[in-house]
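Moderator note: this is an archived Q&A kept for reference. The question asked for a predicted structure of one protein chain; the sequence and the answer are reproduced below.
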Amino acid sequence: MTDTVYLVGGGPSAEPVLLMEIANQRRHQIIAINDAVFWLPWTVAVFSADARWMADRRDLLLRYRGHTILAVPDGHPRDIAPASASRSITYLRAVQDRPWSQDAGVVALNGTSGFAALNYAALTGARRVVLIGYDYGLGPNGRRHWYDESLGTVRVSGGDVDRWEHWAEHFQKAVPYLSAAGIEVVNTSADSRVTAFPCRRLEELL
């Protein structure tokens, strides 16, 4: 793992133009979370801790040529996307019974793939983690994701919207562990409900 890792979630604040600029400079440092990988197929890795997403996107995972990192909750199968000569797969255990994991091969879930991805980045040696699209809230015109318009669907309700604020609060649990390890975390979403980390514009970090 490199010193700085960019975790790209689906929140509407992520700007595709800036993501492409990061890709040109730091492609090897970007991890796409869940559906973000559809629009960022060149990332070094895709991460998910959502068992339903893994099952629904199995065909995508079989085609993806980067490193696939799947944090599987207990009780779900770990053979979703078998490794091959052209595909690297890492399976982790995702747990809900602890605020943070310091054990290799285990990540704390705390509700979302975004939290689990942060735990993974810390476990693998990142010294700075840049959060992109970690809004945990709706954007302009009720957009849930930065890629909604590409899909032709803009959902303003339903799904997990009512739980976003609760999930965002979980990030506070990570702060003492990250501080003790000397890991800096920067949130690039100015309107994010994740308030545990300082916010900076993504342009300043390029």
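Archived answer notes: The chain is about 30% helix and 20% strand.
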